[in-house]
Here is the input.
Amino acid sequence: VNGMEIYSMKIDSKVTSRFAHNVITSRAVNRGNVSKEVFFDVELPKTAFITNFSMTIDGVTYPGTIKEKEAAKKQYEKAVSRGQTAGLVKASGRKTEKFSVSVNIKAASKVTFELTYEELLKRQFGKYEMFIKVKPKQLVKDFEIEVDIFEPQGITELEAEGTFITNELQDTIKKTFSGKKGHISFKPTLDQQRTCANCSQSVLDGDFTVRYDVKRTTPDNLQIVNGYFVHFFAPTNLPKLSKNIIFVLDTSGSMSGREIEQTKEALLKILDDIKEDDFFNFILFDSEISTWKETLIKATPENLDEARKFVRQISAQGMTNLHGGLMRGIDILNAAHDENLVPKRSASIIIMLTDGHPNVGISNTHEIEKAVKKAIDGRYTLYNLGFGSGVDYGFLERMALDNKGLARRIYPDSDAALQLQGFYDEVSNPMLIDVELNYPENEISDLTTNSFKHFYDGSEIVVAGRFVDSNQNHLSVDVRGEGANDALSYTTQQGAEQTAQAFQEQQYIFGEYIERLWAYLTIEQLLEKRLTATGEEKENLTAQALALSLMYKFVTPLTSMVVTKPEENNNEEGIADKPTEGIDIFTIPGTCVVYAKLFLIVKLISIKPSFITKLYGQTSPLYHTYASPPTWYTSVDGDPHFIISVPQKKDAICFNINENPGMILNLINDPVTGITVNGELIGDKRANSDAKIQNSYFGKLGIANKQLDVKLTVTPEMITIQNGDEKTGFTWLDSVTLQQAGLTLIINRKKNLVLSMGSGASFVVVLHQVWKKHPLHQDFLGLYTLKSDKLSEKTHGLLGQFFRPIDFTILEIHPGPDPKKPDATMIVKNNELTVTRGWQKDYRRDPKHGVDIPCWFVHDNGAGLIDGVHTDYIVSSLF
Here is the structure.
């Protein structure tokens, strides 16, 4: 492709006792007559840690070095200041993170990229699973995946499949297993890789998945090697415990439409799977809290039928009283146990689903965390499911971990119902509760987590540790737990000689694998504990995790890998970071960082330093991050500037409307639902006599719903609601939560108001206040749409026309008049426009300072982007 040939790509995986060591090697050659840029793109599992990367060009190797994140960042910033750019990070899917590096190589030169990463494979539904992302982007002469598995317990089943595997490719997957060893290879020829007989495109694009399980003659397997041990615990053939499950469901207005329908679809399928010995209930929270039943109900056929009727009539409206919903669920579980309504030996679980932020009742997330932890008091497990990108995922994760559960993001796609049902399936079959694996305290140091609230059928508990005496070669374990019929209690032991006998096939073993498994598991758990810790405890956990990450050369959220390119690439430096859930990175296209959710990637773009300096200046904002970026929305704020999110591009378009004070602009008009929003412009206190168009801002908003016969007038002084002939007024000094005539209004004193109009639309109006004695400026308003999918396809207006998907293409990025803002050509609505890369402010969460949102700016009042011209949107009155 473009003179660059990837002539070899090999993915070599060695799995020993569930711990996978993966090496991806890619070799390319420049077949052209001039220097070319070659890219190495790899997608890895989010659960993996990168341990090594190197590139070898004409026999010279350039290794990556793993450093503390702060030290790496300083090195990176020095490189940026010299115009030697590098970059970071991208999410490429629900389960993957993407590592990408590029380098210029001379004509006829060769380059070899090698990336190593490790992960502990987890057991779910009775199998261990490892997936490998396959996407070479061109035909590769020598392409091979090779997987070697070594399990001392013996392998009972082994399978491999690929989402891209055609009938012609099926026979190219070779699979063998016998005793302790398993082998899989996939080596398609060039012709087998083609999408058709004479095509140059590759069919290799998708997931290659390996699944296997091991033989279990006892519940335990202990392995001891060189002063470290690992204990695998997965008993089989146990009677299932009955479970007591509370579903706490967000039914606020933001869940309306597809989200609530998918939730109901999943719940109906879950009701089909609930066992007759189980007890259950539903708690719904919006502005109010409602329950299906006042107590836990046994899952008899009659009760399940009644529950299905209840689920079918669930609807969404109002705000989000998350705290109230959780507390009601906990109260019902407490009462069920106190009154002996449920079996003593049973598993109690709370599954909470939300798509937004708490904004009614107690809305401070730290207060909610403390209250929930105190109320649960270690008795039940809390699982938090975050629907979509509008949730505070960090809050959900901390609260779940505090209560022996976990958080999971539910992606708002067509399969959201299957995601919900899939999560339930993981926790639907508890076999044991209160499991403890106890080891002699005087023999073991640095033990990973060894007590577990639940053990689920088809899963596995893994504990690892380090011996005080590195020469110790035996270990006894005391195992305790509560089963359906009686307590589980026994002692097991293992000697190192048994492990040594099992590990005679040394070619399957990589390094000190048990020690690395212990380090991986310890770091993973320290990082989890760190999420909920504060003060000195958090500092200690951070220090421990950092020390281990550096010692074992893992790229974790506390470390970074610095990659330095050869002299021909101006010694550019790049950093590979491990991202954390819910943190996004923004920057200008043409540099190295792109916007995406939850991501990991190093993007080393080979742009000449002189061009970078010319384009962005010596202090270019190449590395620009926001810890809490906005979710997708449309808005108008400031003087006035419009921001239009384009989710499929993970980008935004912006434009200004320049009109004189006194003009009223139509922002949203839906003739079907009767919802309209108009805004009246105000100017500065003193007009600028030299300006043809005066500075203007929105000083008054009129929001109406004809179906509800409601009109809301908002100014920087007052909020007035007119319902028929009745009028109600508030000032911005009030703190108000009001439900009236299908409308829900929350005024956050001197900050903003949140408005929901039935299930039709949700808005935030932001108040901007300036110094009253300011000689020029005066208070003004901003408008943000949070929910618009219930408005009809006929919705129009300066904002409303963008509630439907819009697509665009960016071409020919080049320097513009402002050295920090490149220009480009945009193709949109069959128009070719010159646009400029820049920022606009999002003031929803911080009305004073705002957050910079990168966007492509369309000039001339949005000409070519908006339908018609901007004067078409001038209306005669606010309503």
Q: What stands out?
A: Confidence is low (pLDDT under 50) at residues 83-91, 582-631. The longest strand covers residues 4-16. Residues 633-875 form one domain.
